[in-house]
């Protein structure tokens, strides 16, 4: 059963009441009827097993049968810093990274990016990416929907990161340690951020910025992967090593 995320204000002590897009999807697309069981999530740390009691044009309401609480995390949260990719590749990375449990995705405006977002399109694009993440989180039964941050330069991202964030950069054709072999912090209060470059790779200036910021260069091996493949491969390895997969 997929989980459907709703704003916390839709959830009371004993009932759930939803409107808007969630109502339309459940009522018109899935044709949910009275008596069916639906799993709702607040996007923070709780899920609600709910029996639908009424379906109208205005709202869908249900009685909460059981409240489930997410267990305390046993490993650091994972952040993906992904350079902007052309076509639907960025959409695909956001979708798959969400399915793999990434907590935040930061689009990076790299020098070698083929795609450059216009200022008047940023809000619409962010909203679109957030919807992709929401749908992927629902389908894969995640507890949380990852945040999609506004696009920013590598310099701005590294300057604004939290002090307890371990930062890794996938940097091919450089002397780097294997992602399988580097030491990873298990401090649940911190985060691990992995940076993936664009199709054209990182510029020399960006590599220098990363070096000055004490970013750890990593490699996935001798083969050269497409940017979107490298992103999902790196996330899968990290989540496996952190005990979140398998």
List keywords for this structure.
seven-stranded parallel beta sheet, five-stranded mixed beta sheet, 246 residues, alpha/beta
Walk me through this protein's architecture.
With 246 residues, this protein is an alpha/beta fold. 28% of the residues lie in helices and 26% in strands. It has helices spanning 20-29, 89-99, 122-139, 154-160, 204-212, 227-241, and strands at residues 3-5, 15-18, 37-41, 46-55, 60-69, 77-83, 104-108, 147-148, 165-170, 177-178, 191-196, 216-219. A seven-stranded parallel beta sheet has the order 8-7-6-11-9-12-10. It has a five-stranded mixed beta sheet with strand order 1-3-4-5-2. Helix 2 links the parallel strand 6 (77-83) and strand 7 (104-108). The mean pLDDT is 91.
Written as H for each helix and E for each strand, in order along the chain, the element string is EEHEEEEHEHEHEEEHEH
Strand content: 25-35%
By DSSP (H or I, 4+ residues per run), the number of helices equals 6
Q: Terminal Cα separation, in Å?
A: 20 Å
Radius of gyration: 20 Å
Q: Largest beta sheet, briefly? A: 7 strands, parallel
Helices and strands: which structural class? alpha/beta
Q: Biggest sheet, strands in spatial order?
A: 8-7-6-11-9-12-10
Average pLDDT works out at 91
Per DSSP E runs of 2 or more residues, the count of β-strands stands at 12
Overall, the morphology is: elongated
What is the share of helical residues?
Answer: 25-40%
Low-confidence stretches are: none
